[in-house]
Amino acid sequence: MEQINGSLQMEHALLFTFLDASSDCQFKDQLHSLHSPQIMSCQASDDDELQTDGNRSGHFQNGELELPPTNEEVIRIIAAQLAEIGDQFDKEIQARVVRDLVQHFVNERLSREEITLHLSRAVNKLLTSIPSDMAQEKAMLVLAMVLTKKIVNTMPSLLRRVYDATVNYMNQQFHDYIVEMLAETLWTCPNALHKQVSYVT
């Protein structure tokens, strides 16, 4: 996997925590290797931070993902909620959709842009076949992360390629939505809000 820069930090944290919280994730040992210094080595800039006003906060220290406790807790809360939705979506995703995506990901001749396009098309197609009364952006975000889990469950050796593509897709399509979710959850979660007050003081 290519190094994850600061601008992808939130997407990385959300996808990582979502997969870790998902049922039937058969590659959790390999998943935790994504926190290795070789992969995570980077330093987020000051403008890549998430505060309670919706701006980004957090940094990488000694090659490890470092989020303020409040942001880390909020990401866990959101990821757990999305993972529950994902477990429901999981049953509705046909095996052939996953098989087709696996074939695209094993094709090393495809560029990152082409891979992302195939992932986007699969998400859009599934969106029309999965009944849901939730916000379209949330449904698409969950579908992308569930597809990541199912692809890597099918072929674990694709973890880094699929993970990298999904993080970039999330950043391109849902970055602002993720920022809003984090800020909204931080203000509506009493425990997280309490920690934020303690953290600043």
Question: Topology, pairings included?
Answer:
Layout: H1 9-21, H2 28-32, H3 37-40, E1 59-61, E2 64-66, H4 69-90, H5 95-106, H6 112-129, H7 136-154, H8 159-188, H9 190-200
Task: Walk me through this protein's architecture.
The protein has 201 residues and is mainly α. Helix content is 67%, strand content 3%. It is built from nine helices and two strands, in the order αααββαααααα. It has a two-stranded antiparallel sheet with strand order 1-2. Strand 1 and strand 2 form a beta hairpin. Helix 4 crosses helix 8. The protein is globular, with a radius of gyration of 16 Å. The N and C termini lie far apart (38 Å). The N terminus and C terminus are likely disordered.
Alpha-carbon Rg, integer: 16 Å
Shape: globular
- Global mean pLDDT: 78
Question: Which runs of at least 5 residues are low in confidence (pLDDT < 50)?
Answer: 1-6, 36-60, 192-201
Count of DSSP H/I helices: 9
What is the first-to-last residue Cα distance?
38 Å
Portion in helices: 55-70%
Strand order of the largest sheet: 1-2
Can you count the beta strands?
A: 2
Q: What is the element string, with H for helices and E for strands?
A: HHHEEHHHHHH
The structural class is mainly alpha
Strand content: under 5%
Q: How would you describe this structure in keywords?
A:
201 residues; mainly alpha; two-stranded antiparallel sheet; 9 helices; 2 strands; disordered N terminus; disordered C terminus
